[in-house]
Design brief:
The chain is of the alpha+beta class. The protein is built from 2 helices and 7 strands; from the N terminus they run ββββαβββα. It is elongated and about 55 Å long.
């Protein structure tokens, strides 16, 4: 599947799987129409969310994993389509575990939850302080 970089946020977008175009359309009634070449299919919001979640779950188990390194296109980026600005988040401890739960809201993918072992959470906390201007730990 090829997703062209930097597509404008429009109501209708087309993507290509091998040689077949996929057309996506956000409808005024809050549904989405997807056409895989065999005719359009309308999805309600809950169906679209289930499809996105299912695709993400399947993607996580494919042999070619999501790269562990940040893609070059995101390094140094401060604005653009790939950036979610000031997302809501929620942090809480996990009872009986040496970990915290970090949930971040993405406008397209919904709430994404991450279980962070305490050491990883402490590292993240330290790095956020180092890179936050005005923080006592800022570089």
């Amino acid at each position: 599947m090829v997703f062209p970089a930097g597509l404008p946020r429009t109501q209708e977008q087309a993507f290509v799987i091998r040689t077949k175009p996929i057309h996506l359309n956000a409808n005024k009634d809050g549904t989405v129409t997807i056409d895989l070449g065999s005719g359009p299919h309308m999805l309600a919001l809950d169906e679209l969310e289930s499809l996105i979640a299912g695709l993400g779950q399947r993607r996580a188990h494919l042999p070619s994993a999501v790269p562990a390194e940040l893609p070059q296109r995101l390094k140094g980026v401060v604005r653009g389509e790939d950036i979610t600005n000031a997302p809501p988040f929620y942090v809480h401890t996990l009872c009986g575990e040496e970990a915290v739960m970090l949930s971040i809201r993405h406008p397209g993918f919904g709430w994404l939850a991450f279980r962070l072992p305490n050491l990883k959470a402490a590292t993240m906390s330290r790095l956020l302080r180092q890179f936050t201007p005005g923080s006592p730990d800022a570089r």
